[in-house]
Structure formats: structure tokens, C-alpha cells
Design a protein that fits this description.
This protein has a five-stranded mixed β-sheet. By secondary structure, it is α/β, with parallel strands linked by helices. The relative contact order is 0.09. A hairpin with a 5-residue loop joins strand 19 (434-436) and strand 20. The protein contains 15 helices and 22 strands.
């Protein structure tokens, strides 16, 4: 029964520590962890206490790296043993507890702005890339030298993109090279014109050009793993890229390419299914993910107002990392929405062991905002900041008198007609406490009571007024194995 509704508890406990990685050879430490650049970063800031954040698979090298940095800089290094939510986010809370003046983040990063200002240096590592094989693979998949193409990569291969573009530029005329959207140093001027920032990357587009015009060539992944859901960064690119443009991935070790169009279509179909589940839902659980990303409070208030406007009830749950056993304790929830960084919001959705679907904020926005464009026109946004006011993708809720709230809608899952919201958006905080019924009666709306009434077993029946009143009497005394009124056997 346990395996039907959730994964075994022992498996969840074993996954918390993460799988240990391979020990890096001593001769490669300077190159893989870019120790010279980190030393320059610490010396320029004059920091005496620095926090080092490693993902689980790189913790085997943490002690050696910290010792080398202490010897080169003379500063005290603190290794963050765990993270507040995910290893891709900057753990500003852990750094503050150590009194650190700066933080060095190793491994894959979502590059989300931290909730508190803190100097951060990102070290992605340097995975070996067979440039000649990747160049030949690019030429095989892009025979037209005039077709616009963007070079993308996983973070550990980003250092090799410029060299790869040098091998291809003599032939390809419209080749764009992306780069990680690293935070600019304090006091440095912004480049003119400012490059487009999307998917945690910068795209130096020419004036008048749009990213939707370009195909993609992604360097990363491996042949051993063919499931894109295992890589949230690749899933983010496949979901947000223009569906009509080609998207190829290339293994950096062997140069083997794969057309990602089919898998991207499956991911988009899965997203549309989750939107339909959110439209059918009456009770929504808002999972508070990482607290270290900026504007998370504003995003949580936005999602609560969104569900309120759509006539749904929402509950805020702070459970840490979502696991099937945790979420199975809330069966009254129809769907869950994970408020996390772009990579964290996509990471748990590939698992089929959750009792209820886990959505990203973009799916909830598409389900509850009637002004949101249709799936073919609206981009898939992976960061909740893109939904907030001030973003070019922000779509405000229609006014209460708008006809969009009364548009008939049919569920594509049940085939039933969805009723319009029971009430419209309002500034009155008390209007949601009462729900009008057709008989003009006012009753308190309680999703928990409605869920309880639908269950076959609702607890012991009190039988009020049917049980005779008697005086209190003394009960048994002792322990279950030998009560005092029992004879010795």
C-alpha cells in the first residue's frame, strides 16, 4: 500500500544526503574549481570570512578546496553542510549564520537574485568538451549557413562556447553565443545595449532581432540519460523555446546529437494537462520553497490573490523539500503549486509518485487568470518573478465587471462545464468568508468540511441526545499487561 501512494520512507531518507561524487584529482583542482579566480574575488573584497557552498556530489572535494583557499587568501573558509532548500540557490541564510562577508557557489546554479544583498561568486566547473566532434555535429544538423542558431550549453560547458563559435563563424553568418547571466560586479557599468536575459542566460541580440527567430544547439547532457526531466535546466529551455524552431542537443564527450522536438512536445503537453488540473481544482496548496530568492513574499501574495479571484481556496504550506510522504498528509488538496527558483520548480514534477500533481506558478497563472493568452501565444515562464508587476510578461487580472470572468469553460479532463467563480475580485478582506447559495442562504465555506463529508468513514458518531447520562466511575488501573483488577495467571 505504501508504494502505491508514496515512495518508501527509507528511500526518501537515503536521498536527502545525495549521491557522493568522484574525488577530483589534485592536479585538476585549480582548473575545475577555478581557484585562481576565487582567490582574486576574495582578495578584491578583502573578506575575512567566506562561505563555500557545494552541491552534494562535490562535497568530497570541499575540504581540500577550503584548505587551499585559506592558505592562498588567509581568510577563514566555512563549508555549508546543507542548504535551506536546493543546492542551485545561493544559501544566504546559512552564510549569515556563519557571519560570512561573501559566498562562493560551486556547481549548477539557477542564478536567481538572492533575497539579501551578498557578494557571490559562481564556479560552474569545467567539463571536458570535444570541440571538433561538437563542431562536426553542429554542421551536420545545420546545413544552411544562413539559418539563425543560438549556441547553448549546460553551466559546466559554458566556458567552451566561445571557442566552439570560433570554429563555426567562418561559415555560419548568423550565429549567436549565449552566456550565463552572472551578476555584474558592484560599480561596473551596464553594457550598451543591454543583452536579453532569459533562462538564466544572456543573449546579445542585434537591434530588431528576436530570440523566437533562432534555433538552438545545446551542448550538454550524456548518452546514458535520455530523460530530459532529469535535467531541470534542459527542461526549462525545451519548455520556453519557440515550438516552431529546431532544438538539438549534443553530448560534449562524443558529439552525438539528438532532436529534442518530440520530447519538448511531450513536456508542453504535460504542462497543458497540469493547467487543466488546476482549473478543475477547488483547494490548492501553495508550497513555500526556497526563502533565499528575492521577491518570494510578493510572489506568494500574488498567488493567493490569484486563487482568491478564481473562486478557489488556498493554503500556504512550509514543508521544506517536497516529498511524496509529506504531501500525502494533505489529501484534501486537489493540486500543489511549488513556489521556488526556476530549477527547483521543475525538479519534482517529473516524479509520478506524488499523490497530487505539483505545478509551477506559471501553470496556476494560466489556469486562474482569464486574461492570460492561449497556450499557443503565451510563453512558458519558469521564474515566478516574470509573473509579478514590473515584468514584461505580467498580465494583470481583469476588473470585477469584466466579461472574461463569465466566459463558459469546459473541462478537458471531466468534460463538465466549469461554473464561473462564486465571487469576483474585491478589496474587501471579509467578502471571502461567506459564500452565497442559490437559496439566498449564507453559510461558512470550509473546504476541509466538504472533504470530510465526501469520505466514507467520518469518525465516531456522537449520537447527541441518544446516550443516557450516567455518573463517572473509576476505570481500570495499571498497565495493559497486568491490570490491578485481573488475577495473576
Amino acid at each position: 500500500m505504501e508504494s502505491t501512494f508514496s515512495s518508501p520512507a527509507e528511500a526518501a531518507l537515503q536521498r536527502e544526503a545525495g549521491a557522493p561524487g568522484m574525488l577530483t584529482p589534485v592536479a585538476d583542482l585549480d582548473r575545475v574549481y577555478e581557484l585562481q579566480r576565487v582567490v582574486g574575488f576574495v582578495r578584491d573584497l578583502g573578506c575575512q570570512r567566506v562561505a563555500l557552498q557545494f552541491p552534494d556530489q562535490l562535497l568530497v572535494d570541499a575540504g581540500v578546496v577550503a584548505a587551499r583557499l585559506e592558505e592562498a587568501t588567509g581568510s577563514k573558509m566555512f563549508i555549508l553542510g546543507d542548504t535551506a532548500y536546493g543546492s542551485c540557490c545561493v544559501d544566504v541564510l546559512g552564510a549569515e549564520q556563519a557571519g560570512a562577508q561573501a559566498l562562493v557557489h560551486f556547481g549548477t546554479a539557477c542564478l536567481s537574485p538572492p533575497a539579501r544583498p551578498l557578494p557571490v561568486a559562481f564556479v560552474f566547473g569545467q567539463r571536458s568538451v570535444a570541440l571538433e566532434l561538437c563542431a562536426k555535429a553542429f554542421e551536420a544538423q545545420n546545413p544552411d549557413p544562413t539559418a539563425p542558431v543560438v549556441l547553448l550549453s549546460e553551466p559546466a560547458c559554458a566556458y567552451a562556447l566561445e571557442t566552439l563559435a570560433t570554429l563555426l563563424c567562418p561559415r555560419y553568418l548568423d550565429l549567436l553565443v549565449s552566456s550565463p547571466a552572472l551578476p555584474l560586479p558592484v560599480g561596473s557599468p551596464n553594457p550598451e545595449p543591454e543583452p536579453l536575459e532569459r533562462f538564466g542566460r544572456r543573449f546579445p541580440l542585434a537591434p530588431g532581432r528576436h530570440l523566437e527567430e533562432y534555433g538552438a544547439f545545446y551542448v550538454g547532457g550524456s548518452e546514458a540519460s535520455s530523460d530530459p526531466d532529469l535535467d531541470p535546466d534542459l527542461s526549462r529551455l525545451l519548455l520556453g523555446w519557440a515550438p516552431e524552431r529546431p532544438f538539438f542537443s549534443c553530448c560534449p564527450d562524443t558529439g552525438k546529437t539528438h532532436d529534442e522536438g518530440v520530447r519538448a512536445g511531450r513536456l508542453r503537453a504535460r504542462r497543458r494537462y497540469l493547467v487543466e488540473r488546476a482549473r478543475d481544482a477547488h483547494v490548492i496548496g501553495l508550497l513555500v520553497g526556497t526563502l533565499g530568492v528575492a521577491r518570494h513574499r510578493e510572489a506568494l501574495a500574488h498567488l493567493r490573490n490569484l486563487t482568491k479571484a478564481a473562486g478557489k481556496r488556498s493554503y500556504v504550506l512550509a514543508l521544506g523539500r517536497p516529498t511524496p510522504p509529506k504531501l500525502a498528509n494533505f489529501p484534501e488538496m486537489d493540486v500543489f503549486v511549488l513556489l521556488a527558483c526556476p530549477l527547483g520548480a521543475l525538479a519534482p514534477q517529473c516524479s509520478g509518485s506524488f499523490f497530487r500533481p505539483v505545478l509551477a506558478p506559471c501553470e496556476l497563472e494560466a489556469a486562474c487568470n482569464p486574461a492570460w493568452p492561449s497556450p499557443g501565444l503565451a510563453p512558458h515562464l519558469t521564474h515566478y518573478a516574470d509573473l509579478l508587476p514590473g515584468s514584461p510578461f505580467h498580465v494583470p487580472l481583469p476588473p470585477p465587471e469584466s466579461e472574461l470572468w463569465d466566459t463558459p469553460d469546459v473541462s478537458l479532463i471531466t468534460g463538465e462545464l466549469r461554473p464561473p467563480p462564486a465571487w469576483k475580485p474585491s478589496n474587501d478582506p471579509g467578502c471571502s468568508a461567506l459564500t452565497p447559495r442559490p437559496q439566498l442562504e449564507l453559510v461558512e465555506s470550509s473546504p476541509a468540511a466538504s472533504f470530510l463529508s465526501s469520505r466514507s468513514w467520518q469518525g465516531l458518531q456522537p449520537h447527541l441526545g441518544q446516550t443516557p447520562v450516567t455518573g463517572a466511575v473509576s476505570g481500570r488501573r495499571g498497565i495493559a499487561i497486568a491490570y490491578e483488577d485481573e488475577g495473576s495467571s
